[in-house]
Design brief:
Number of domains of chain B: 2
Strand order of the largest sheet of chain A: 1-2
Oligomer: heterodimer
Structural class of chain B: mainly alpha
CATH architecture of chain A: Orthogonal Bundle
CATH topology of the largest domain in chain B: MetI-like fold
Strand content of chain B: under 5%
Order of helices and strands of chain A: HHHEEHHHHHHHHHHH
CATH superfamily of the largest domain in chain B: MetI-like
Largest interface: A-B, 93 and 91 residues
Radius of gyration of chain A: 23 Å
Number of helices of chain A: 14
Strand order of the largest sheet of chain B: 1-2
CATH class of the largest domain in chain B: Mainly Alpha
Strand content of chain A: under 5%
Number of strands of chain A: 2
Number of domains of chain A: 1
Shape of chain B: globular
Helix content of chain A: over 70%
CATH class of chain A: Mainly Alpha
Chain lengths: 291, 280
């Protein structure tokens, strides 16, 4: 009976992967094949034509939302958008790691009067995720002049409440003796952080980075709200704009083209996930076990 | 010197927190009574509150959000527990494959997934073509609701399945020995030993999902656009439209306050009911 149940679960697992597999395979199919044999996972005549077309595509993107009107046409939009996404992800990864380690160190290894208040604030922003108040965050960013710059995505996401919480839990296990020994060697707060705390926290940082990078890459709502200039779009944002407003009109006639775009949009996130998968699972174990 | 060190460590992050994490929550309250936009009228009192609470669309959105929550939460939790238990029976490689397969949709961009679903569910799309049917999955009412629910289900199973499988290791193995001696079948073992043993994890995941389902907006936004006839317009999506389609920021602020209270209230309620501390 166990075998039957496992068999059914694995069947369901295959069904879960089917849409993804079809997307990727359709992106390699020519027009007639994509229309004629939509369910065939291995294409008869694989072709890179769709990719060539979508990468060289010069969309005419017009922005009429919010404040201004932009109408632009520029070469290799996919490349530009990819770079934007990379900049956002890299800057975010660096800042959340550093700010998370600093704040978690301060909260877990120092005792001071306002500590409970600060922890309360961290918990509050886990309970009420920034997404819920995105309209107010947008108004804030517009007021201080971040709107329509990549900083609008990087700066508000430079601290992550979830990361800090996770690191605080993780650092509790670091014995006070280690820190005292560092003190004897004359290390200050930042010396201790760099020489003692950070190296010990590397597994946790790996797990957090994995989740953070995948999450940031796939984030849609916030970039959609604050990046309205087509040259500033992230890859996900740009690809959707192109597929839905430009190519989707013809997706019925040429699904391969749209799906080449979709594959390009989701590939980096998936590659990051597969690459960091090991850390991710370790991190989840810690999280689930440490609860 | 050492007395101030911690503020050097905490200060910069704390400042960013207060500006981008806490201030927006307060701004949602002030923004609902004071319109500060470029075409704002300044102090408007409770007008936006009255407008929102008397608009039938708002209550439809509220009802839709609740409907999604009531339908999705029990299905997601039950299904992920069953899947986690069954996958834990499998051999090592099979188990790893299953875990990966369920997690991949969870780490795939939701917007790209919705592009695929739009194509598959279109009137002349893949599914209608395969089964030779003529169903308006996106354009008719109960069908759109259930299509969105299916999409949400397919991308949210991964996380609880992985967490649950990880938590099984914390159950005392001796209990299983005892169950074997008592002649329990595998399902009974799961129901009487595994599930009670990891109940805190199940509740924690349930609360996370609850909060996530209340914030549902992506699939309605990019697959149905909230339609047909507002049948899939959730509170989050309505807030977005209010602010960025209709540029009515005070009304959007009112909805944000409602969302914040809803999320916080339900978290506290689940804490009271279960007696579990969700965080800390």
């Amino acid at each position: 009976m166990k075998r039957v149940a496992v068999g059914i679960a694995i069947l369901v697992a295959f069904v879960m992967l089917l849409p993804l597999a079809l997307t990727i395979s359709t992106s390699f199919k020519g027009r007639t094949e994509a229309l004629g044999a939509p369910l065939r996972v291995i294409p008869f005549n694989p072709t890179l034509d769709n990719y060539r077309q979508i990468v060289n595509y010069r969309p005419f993107l017009q922005e009429t939302n919010h404040d201004a009107v932009y109408a632009e046409r520029f070469d290799y939009p996919m490349g530009r958008w990819f770079l934007n996404s990379v900049v956002i992800a890299a800057a975010g990864a660096a800042t959340t790691t550093i700010s998370g380690l600093m704040m978690a160190f301060g909260l877990s290894k120092y005792r001071f009067r306002l500590r409970r208040v600060v922890i309360g604030l961290v918990v509050l922003s886990i309970v009420v995720p920034g997404q819920v108040v995105f309209v107010q965050k947008f108004i804030l960013c517009r007021t201080i002049g971040l709107y329509n710059t990549l900083f609008a995505v990087i700066v508000p996401n430079a601290v992550s409440a979830g990361s800090i919480w996770f690191l605080v839990q993780y650092m509790k296990a670091i014995p006070q003796d280690f820190l005292d020994m560092g003190r004897l060697d004359g290390l200050g707060a930042f010396g201790l952080l760099r020489r003692v705390i950070a190296p010990l926290c590397m597994p946790a940082v790996g797990a957090l980075l994995a989740m953070y990078l995948v999450g940031t890459w796939n984030n849609y709502l916030w970039p959609l709200v604050v990046l309205r200039k087509p040259t500033l779009y992230t890859l996900i944002l740009g690809v959707r704009e192109v597929i839905v407003y430009d190519v989707l009109i013809s997706t019925v006639q040429n699904p391969g083209l749209g799906f080449a775009g979709a594959t390009l949009g989701m590939a980096p996130g998936l590659i990051l996930f597969l690459f960091f998968q090991r850390y991710m699972v370790t991190g989840l174990f810690h999280k689930a076990g440490g609860k | 010197m050492r007395r101030r060190e911690h503020w050097l460590l905490i200060g910069p992050s704390l400042a960013l927190y207060i500006i981008f994490g806490i201030a927006p929550i307060l701004m949602s309250v002030t923004g609902s009574v004071y319109d500060s936009g470029p075409f704002g009228e300044g102090w408007i009192g409770l007008r936006a509150w009255r407008d929102v609470f008397t608009s039938p669309r708002f209550w439809t959105g509220m009802a839709t959000t609740m409907k999604f929550t009531v339908v999705l939460l029990p299905i997601i939790m039950a299904l992920s527990v069953v899947l986690a238990v069954v996958l834990s029976w499998a051999r090592r490689k099979t188990r790893a494959f299953g875990r990966l397969a369920f997690y991949v949709p969870a780490v795939t961009s939701g917007v790209m997934i919705s592009v695929i679903w739009r194509w598959a569910l279109a009137p002349n799309g893949l599914i209608n073509h395969l089964f030779n049917t003529d169903i308006l999955f996106i354009g008719s009412n109960p069908a759109a609701f259930w299509s969105i629910s299916a999409m949400v289900l397919s991308v949210t199973l991964g996380q609880p399945v992985i967490y649950l499988m990880a938590s099984f290791a914390t159950v005392d193995p001796e209990l299983y020995e005892a169950a074997k001696l008592d002649g329990c079948n595998p399902w009974q073992e799961a129901w009487y030993i595994t599930v009670p043993g990891i109940l805190p994890v199940i509740i924690y995941l349930g609360v996370l999902r609850l909060s996530g389902t209340i914030q549902l907006w992506q699939f309605p936004y990019s697959v149905t656009g909230g339609g047909p006839n507002y049948g899939t317009t959730t509170l989050m999506l309505m807030t977005y439209q209010e602010a960025f389609v209709h540029t009515r920021f005070p009304e959007a602020s009112v909805m944000s306050v409602v969302l914040v209270l809803l999320v916080m209230g339900l978290l506290m309620l689940s804490r009271v009911i279960t007696g579990q501390r969700i965080l800390g």
